[in-house]
Every structure is written in C-alpha cells, then in structure tokens.
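Proteins fold reproducibly. Consider a sample protein:
=====
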Amino acid sequence: MQQKRFVLSDFLKIILLIIGISLFIWSLKITYEKQRIEASLDIENQLNDFVSRINDKLMTSTEVLYSLSNLVNTFNNLGPEEFGQFTSDLSSRKKGILLIEWQPRVLEIEREQFINKVRKMGLKSFDMLEPDENDILIKAKKRAEHFPVLYAVSTRRQETSIGLDLAWSPERMQSKYEARDLGVPRASNTFPVILIETEQNASLGFAITLPVYKTKSIPSTLEARKKQLKGFLAAVIYLEELFNPFVEILDSKNLQLQITDLASDTLMIKNVSVNNSKLTSQKEIDVFGQKWRVKVYATDKYLRRYFSQDHFFIPYVLLLFILGLFYVLYRNENKNKELSKARTDLQKALHNARVAAKSKMMFLANMSHEIRTPMNAILGYAKLIKGEEDDKLRQQYIDRMAHSGEHLLSVIDDILDVSSLEESKVKLHLHKFNLHELIAEVNDIVAIKFRSTGNEYIYSVDSSLHDLYGDSIRLRQILINLLSNAFKFTEKGKVFLSCVNKGVNENKQITVQFKVQDSGIGMDKDYLSRAYQPFSQEDETFSRKKGGTGLGLSIVYNLVKMMNGKINIDSRKGVGTTFIIDLPFEQVEQSSEKKSEDEEVSDKDINWSAKKSVLIAEDDEDARFLIKLFLKDLKLKLDFATNGRELIDMASKTSYDLILTDIQMPELDGLSATRKLRDQGVKTPIVALSAHALMEEKEKCMQAGISDILSKPVNQHELISFIKKYLGQLS
C-alpha cells in the first residue's frame, strides 16, 4: 500500500511538472510572439517610410527633367549657355543629381546640317563620335538615327561626353527606347560612377531618361511617339547621396539596409553587418521600370528593445518556481534532442534549396542560349527572304531556317525527355522488333545528319541477333544520342557501332551489348563522374562551337537504367571515347508476319475512284494553310473547322472518311469534342494533331477516343502517310 502511494505521488509530481512546464512554455511563447509582432510591424513601417522617402526624392528629381523639356520645346535654337544656366539653377536644388544631358534625335540625312548648325552655335569642334574596340573615339558610323550628347551639365565637375553618339550602344539605348515608346521616364541599370572632385573609388549610380517630343503633349500612339521624338533628357543620379540621408535615419534606429538591383543582381547598398538577423522585412519597388529589392535588417541592439528580460518577467518567475519545485526531477534531464534534429533538418532543407536554385539558374542560362540561337537564325532568315529576289539565295535561307527549326525542336524534345525521366513519367512500351531493321534506321538518320563531317562510320550487328522484345523507340533514342555525340566531337576520324550477343542471363533474357566508339577529343577522368548530369559539358568553348544542351548523356543514362541495363564510359583525352551498354531483351522466335497496320500504305492500296472526304479541325490559320498546301496533290475533299463545336456540328451532319483535330482549340478542345462524337456513336477514325509531346498527354488522347496521334510540328511526309494509312484501311 505504501509502495502504491509513493508511485501515485511520483505520478502526480510528473503530472504537475508537465502542467507547469506547459504553462511556462505557453506564457513564454505568448510573450515572445507579442514582442516579435510589435518589432516586425515597426520594421515594416520603417521600410515603408524609407521607400516612400526614396520615391518622393526620385519624383522631385524628374521635375528637373520635365522643366528642361519645357525649355527645349519652347526655344528651338537653345544654346549651350542658356541650357547650362537653366540646368545648373535647377539641379543645384536637387541633391543627388550628378549630371544632366540633352541628347537630340538626328536622322542620318540631317547629320551634316545638324553638325554645321551646332558649330555655328559656338561648339566649333563638335562632331558625332563613338568608341572603337580600343575605346578610342572615332567618327560615328552611319545609322538610321543618332542621339549625340549635345549639352551636358555636371554638378560635380564630371567629365562630359559632348558629341558621343549613344546610338552606338544597344545596351544604353534600351531604357531610352522604352521611355520613347511608353512616353514616361525610364531608369537604366546601375553602373559605376567615379567622382573626380574626391577621386574616390567608384560608387554606383543610374540614369533617368525622359523622352521629349515635338508636340506639346505626348502622342497617343506608338508610331506617333517614334515619329515625333525630339530627343532625350537624361539625369545621372548618384546613389550614395540619394540614399545616405535615409540610411542615417535607419542607423539611428539600429536598423540596417540592403538594396539590390534585380535586373543585374547588383548590391546597390549593403549597410549590413548582421548576416543572420532574426527579423527582416523586404519589399520590391518599381523605379521607373527597374526593379529594386529593399531589405531592412534588425540589429541585436534593436532586438534588445523588444526582447529584453523585463518583457519576460512573468514567464521566468514561473520557470523558477517550477525548477525549485522539481529540482530533483530535472537534475538528470537530458537536453532536448528534438531541437538538434530540427536544426539538422533545417540545414539540410536550406542546402537542398540552394542546390535547387543553382540548378534553376543553370537551366535558364543553358536553355536561353540553346533556344535563342536557332530562333535568332529563323527570324533573321525570315527577314532576309522578304527582300531577296535571287531564287538560289532564297532557297538557301529556307534550308537554313528549316535546319534551325529542326534543331530547336530537338532541344525542346530533350528538355521534355529529361523532365519526364526525372519525374518518372516515362513508361516503356514493349513490343517485338527486328534489331537489324532498327540499326538500319539509325544508320540512315546518322548518314543524313552527319554526312558532311568527313568521319568514317563503321558498324556491325551480330548475325545471331534478330527479333527482340523491348522498347525499340527508346533503344533508337539511346543509339542516336550516343552516335550524335561521337560525330559531334570527332573531326575527320572514325566512329564505330557494334551490337554483340552476350548470351542469356539468369532471368532467361538475352543480353545485347552495344558499343559506340569514336576517335574524337575524349574526356578527362575528373569529368567522367559528372558526365551524366543534366547540362554537364566538359569544354564550354568547344560545346558552344558545336552546340548542344548537355542533356543527351543524361537522357541516355536514365533510359538505360529504366531498361534495367548498365552503361560504362572509357575515355582518354585526345584519343577518343567508348560507351558500352548492356541491355536485357526477351528473345522471340522468327516468324513471317503480314504487313503491320503501322506500315505505309501506297496509293495502289487506296480506292481513289470515290473521292475521300477529310474533316480538319484547327484554330490556327497558318496551320490550316500549311495542311491545305501539304494535301493539295491528293484527291481529297477537305473541310475545315476552327473549334471543337464546329467539329461536332460538321461531323454530325456529314459522314467523313477521316477526321484530323487539334487538341487545344477555343470554345471546346479537341479531346472533349472527340468524347462527344464517340458518345454519339461516330466510328470515323480521329487523328490528333498534338503539340503535347509527353507520354501522359498521349495517354489522355487515347482514353478520349483518339485513334492515333501525329505530333506537331507536322511533317508533310508523315501527314500524308497517316492519311493514306487510314484511308487504305477503309478501301
């Protein structure tokens, strides 16, 4: 009985201990949250006040430019003395303005007349200049329009660039053209500014540009604004003088500041010594088209105002009472292991976030280059074709456009493949195929793509290998990627492909060893461990010369793993590279089969005596035009629908031999229209013209009742083959 009482007493002590600690934690948390909220609100208010002061200061700076624009429009023959006097009076009252310039618009045909006029006004040595590759000023080149610096007034005796034609630099003109097109002031990116009077190190500044038009008001249309542009007024703002008064206010309140130019990721001001501040507040502001991020940090001294011991008097009194009451129980208490685990998890999550951010930046940089390069070629040649009368040159331009388009499509396919593989969305489609026929197809692709490289190509296929059971499409993708790399990084050498029967494995599957070998530039041993990583490229200079996304080997590696295979690299710098892949396949007996449904149907297989009717649903006018041209030589009756509702209406009223439909269309999409037609009992074959390349999207098409899928961009030969295939089945 006594023992039970002791046990009960210990139990009650534990219960009281738990309740007491719970009350202490609750009281501490409530007090902490209350103080944290008050501190956060104060920091946010200080941030908003700082942003408001900066905006007010910048708006007053633009008043100088607007005043000067009225001066320029009022006096057509404004001289340097009048401009200098008026500008000095205004800018001296606006602290932070370092330099003001007038940059008139001068057409090339008016150039000489303009120069003579300026020289008569007192600037006798005036000329339009631009820097060459050695930063030596030379006479400005001919261009449609010029924007020379005609007048420049410095508040700090800065060197001016009278005569410098700003049109020579597209980077400088970017913000100016934006200002012209929008009719409002625009800011440039930040750039270094060196004060001559102090000879101090370069600090940052930026320019505000105001467009000046020939009309009293801003023209209402973009074309009018371009035509009526008289020139630009630009003011260089010195950031140190702009920010310092407000930074001092924050310093006096024990708050520190960091401002970043998001366009260039440049720190404009970093008055921060607290790297791990517990309380921060940030805000993105728009400064005449430029995005700045303003972030305020709380210092330890600031936090002590809100988290001093005085604010936690009651919780600590409660804690002392609990500790005194249960001292014996707590003297052997272990430290809280959960806190350590939480810290470890947080560090791991932070590391993963940084890795993800780095991968994202790498992805954007690579894709920007790989997509813009062929797109630039396509747009460039398209413009050249408009004005080219030579048929041979036009054909060359067209061929180059097609080549660039095919390259752009291959880049997109690689991106989709990597995305699908990393998210495990790719599924293998197993079927019977003949290895010799597959290698012949690969050889044809390689021969066409790389026939001009000057490399010798040798291949061999084990005679014992015939029909296999597996995913031939993915196998062909693996071989084409490896052979493409081999040819790309081999100049006037040899490329080998061999397929060898390695016997039956423990799962009674036949193992086929594929070897792709080249005599190209090879790879360093240090790089081999990273060769399968997405966007990984050893020699950046060579890669840019040859092109490529750095995704090919990553795709190959993931596909081989999906097919339960193995892949190895043997490479030596300057000697060559060998890829060895072992893939398991089910071996099937050879048999003579009838022509499959997927084989092409020739014209003689189709009964053309009765004119076949085809309904094509496509909302894009250019796509309809191309399809009509592609099929003009076939004896077909073509009807067109522009959306899913028209498709249902026309297919319900008329019996067609074949229906082609786009997936994404207004009013009703292609899949929804197909489902309704199937519900109505329409048995007509329906082929989807889809830009969705992912496998899960294709599965959705099949579930909706689509008979087959033809991927965009549509190839004329493939389109005709699909039509003949289904019309042949009807004959």
In short: Residues 2-74 form the longest helix (73 residues). The radius of gyration is 37 Å. The chain has a mean pLDDT of 80. The CA atoms of residues 102 and 233 lie 5 Å apart.
